[in-house]
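Most newcomers find our protein records easier to grasp once they have seen one. Each record describes a single protein and holds just a pair of labelled lines. A learned vocabulary of local backbone shapes supplies the integers on the structure line. Nothing more is needed to start thinking about how sequence determines fold. The record below serves as our worked example for the rest of this section.
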Amino acid sequence: MKTVIQLAFAGLLSLGLSLPLAAEPLESRFVTPDWTVAETLLALGVRPQGVGELAGYQSWVGTPAMPETVQDIGLRSQPNLELLIEMQPEKILLTRMFRSLERPMSRIAPTTLIDNQAGETAWQSMVAQTKEIGRIANRSAAADALIRATEQHIDALAGQIDYTGEPLLVVQFMDAVHARVFGIDSLYGSVLERLRIENAWTGRANSWGFALTSLRELAAIEGRLVIVAPTPLGTDVTASGLWQALPSVRRGDVLWLPPAWSFGALPSARRFADILAEAL
């Protein structure tokens, strides 16, 4: 079963689904530990100087692809400050996820804290964040274009998808028996809403729009399971006896999707819409 899962991921990754990026992004001296800021800069046609944990970006975000010239600044939560001093960035961009870095990084370069929850809904927050990054990067027109293109693209997909099955239960596994399950006010949930697909999770959720749950809890929910990669290294989620109790497993309609950054912005929202539409 694990081999089949891996093949499913590989097949979807081979589709080459991507965003319409500038052929040659403009170089900048912007540094960020945050993958969401990084993917937005790239989607606006701006190449960051440095980004945290580039290998992790490839595993969890993937698209837009990170140019080879971008430097890895170390752990997202603990960047290499000596390297940053040597890089002499023009500006460091943070989100509230990395608020604790604001003081040490402000000693290296002007540091801007971007509010990644600036709207009443997850979608409004992604739009507001895109506009703010566009303003900082002097790419406001590109930001407005990205917002329009993303909304139009996902709305067009909604008109093409003819899905009448069970509501979707979107999860990312944390270990073999625990997963994040995403509600309406998450990136995945907001995309489901724009695609006019019902979200099976109506329970509690934190400020990021997800709840940590167990396979036992998921087994009590009628919905089609959508599992977004990656899963923890060496973890086989199908090995648990509880796996067979899941309604979607019993029906044989589980969807396995390649990565789309659950804490991302518009590029990740579009990627999730694309890979979900293709899978459906």
